[in-house]
Known about the structure:
The chain is α+β, with helices and mostly antiparallel strands. It has helices at 3-21, 79-92, 162-174; strands at residues 35-41, 44-50, 52-53, 57-60, 62-67, 100-106, 111-116, 120-122, 125-134, 138-147, 154-156, 158-161.
Amino acid sequence: MNLGQKITEKLHLMQRMEDQMNFSVRSAEGADRGYHLSETENGIRVDIHIPDQDKYSFVVAKIELENTNFQPDRKHGVKPILMKQAKFIEKHVSYLPETFSLIELDENRQVAQMRSTKPYQKEKVTQYYELMLHQGKRLQLTRYEKKQDEPARQPIHFLLTEEILARLINDLGRAFKFNK
């Protein structure tokens, strides 16, 4: 069983526990409500926030991964690692409604920003995925919505099937193989 499968199995187990025992393992109401799960395998830690789920899919608020075994390349720096990770994600994470492309690479902050290549647009609303790669060892995936009449974007939830969530976690974890 791979890391993505472990995460989805644990999420289903948590839901079954709630159903059978008639109690909640979810966090409090509000923006933080739902399941918060952390799992580590082979040096890759996944932290995920799932506000809701059903038998076949998960409502995702945020996915974060970290390579806990990361050793920085002092000779070449982080830029080549971030570039390789971004290229890997562009190539392999092509099954979401929108694909990713590298928007910015900040060498000083050691951060790469990726976003949906063609964001979803409807009337005066734009929605897009944003994936931030930090120092070659950490990443965060969030979906945002920007309304034309509002000054700031807002994080929003996104829906993934069990299969796509497991695959996404595994592919994002595989991006950490580039640590030199």
